Amino acid sequence: MLPKYMVLVNWIRDRIKSQELKYGEKLSSEKELGQMFSVSRQTVRQAINVLVQEGLLESRQGSGTYVTRKIATAHTPQMVIGVISTYVNDYIFSGILRGVENVLTENGYSMQLAFTHNHIESEKKALTNMMSHGVDGLIVEPAKSGLPSPNMDLYNEALHEGLPLLFFNTYYPALPLPHVALDDMATGLAATEHLIRAGHRRVAGIFKLDDYQGRLRYAGYIRALMNAGIELDDDLVLWYSTEDFSDGFSAEKFQGRLQDATAIFCYNDQIALQAVAALRELGKQVPQDVSVVSVDNSDLAKLCEVPLTSVAHPMEDLGMTAAQNLLRLIQDPTFNATVDFPPHLVERGSVCPPRSL
């Protein structure tokens, strides 16, 4: 016959396993459990201590006892990797996803794909769906990575369950999870230094506020200015969000903020095209009046009316590396899967010295 405390231990285990007691949920009080099982509070404490030692429960002084993780059940590999991307257009994302798919297919895995359009709620639905279907791992481009996320509970649940998860293209800096991305701070540094070497000191910047890449590229931009002894001018910095992008950058907006700039570092090629068009409306030529450097080295940079100097995005290589590193994480959870690709600047015809030189 089982000791009374073990009856309670098994009862709590079963409810965690069936998710009647979910991660983060507070357990009934010692008094309530004692009454339910007709045992003393000492017996209840003995049962709780067993589950605390197993890492299933956590006792918080003055607050109670909480479920800290689900029971790890035997996981039969599904040979399915969940991939969550912000977009699927023909910009850089098709190349990234092609790289991911090629590696997964070569290794016998299929890909379950979801797109968030950089919306937090869509990310939540995708994560919940994939985690409930028992994927073997997740490759995620987080939505609005530059802002606090209400989906941290899901990511923390994945951490507690030991689900292999890797961020690509960007990441949430608050989470101890690996990422595979372009080194965005070094990218901002390299692009801005290129403009400074051409003789520019009035260097403007356009950055994305709600994605962490924008903040890192801004940090690189600031570092380049400081290294050159150039004081940051807030009037030469323009921030935008995901929702702002569809409105575009009008000539009026440029005239109001960036009219004194002789050069602009743009967050990506899409923004650079809008910048070139706005400058043209203002009667300014690229690069004679304003030099422009952007990021991604996409087809947009090559086909722009003035071919753009742009920092290359690793695209397919990034996707392949993300998939390869996730598969290694599945085999070895201690593997350091983080990779930051160094920037490579591709020079074209959008940069020249300022007219005053």
Topology, please?
Layout lengths: L3 H14 L12 H8 L3 H13 L3 E4 L3 E4 L12 E6 L7 H14 L3 E6 L4 H13 L4 E4 L11 H10 L3 E4 L10 E4 L1 H14 L5 E6 L3 H16 L9 E4 L1 H4 L5 H7 L5 E4 L2 H13 L9 E6 L2 H5 L5 E4 L3 H16 L7 E3 L3 E2 L11
Parallel strand pairs: 3-4, 3-5, 5-6, 6-7, 7-13, 8-9, 8-10, 10-11, 11-12
Antiparallel strand pairs: 1-2, 12-14
Helix pairs in contact: 1-3, 2-3, 4-13, 7-8
Describe this structure in a few short sentences:
It comes from Caproicibacterium amylolyticum. By secondary structure, the protein is an alpha/beta fold.
Rounded to the nearest angstrom, the distance between the terminal CA atoms is: 92 Å
Please identify the top-level CATH class of the largest domain.
Alpha Beta
Mean pLDDT: 91
Which H/E pattern describes the elements? HHHEEEHEHEHEEHEHEHHEHEHEHEE
Shape: elongated
Percent helix, as a range, is 40-55%
The structural domain count equals: 3
- CATH topology name of the largest domain, in short, is Rossmann fold
CATH superfamily of the largest domain: Response regulator
Which residues sit in consecutive blocks of at least 5 with pLDDT less than 50?
none
Broad structural category: alpha/beta
Domain HTH gntR-type: 2-70
Protein name: GntR family transcriptional regulator
Pfam family, one: GntR
InterPro entries: AraR_ligand_bind_dom, LacI/GalR-like_sensor, Peripla_BP_I, Tscrpt_reg_HTH_GntR, WH-like_DNA-bd_sf, WH_DNA-bd_sf
How would you describe the overall organization of this protein?
The chain has 357 residues and is α/β, with parallel strands linked by helices. The chain has three domains: 4-67, Arc Repressor Mutant, subunit A; 80-182 and 315-341, Response regulator (Rossmann fold, 3-Layer(aba) Sandwich); 184-312, Response regulator (Rossmann fold), CATH 3.40.50.2300. Helix content is 41%, strand content 17%. It has helices at residues 4-17, 30-37, 41-53, 93-106, 120-132, 152-161, 184-197, 212-227, 242-245, 251-257, 269-281, 299-303, 316-331; strands at residues 57-60, 64-67, 80-85, 110-115, 137-140, 165-168, 179-182, 203-208, 237-240, 263-266, 291-296, 309-312, 339-341, 345-346. Strand 5 (137-140), helix 6 and strand 6 (165-168) form a beta-alpha-beta unit. The radius of gyration is 26 Å and the shape is elongated.
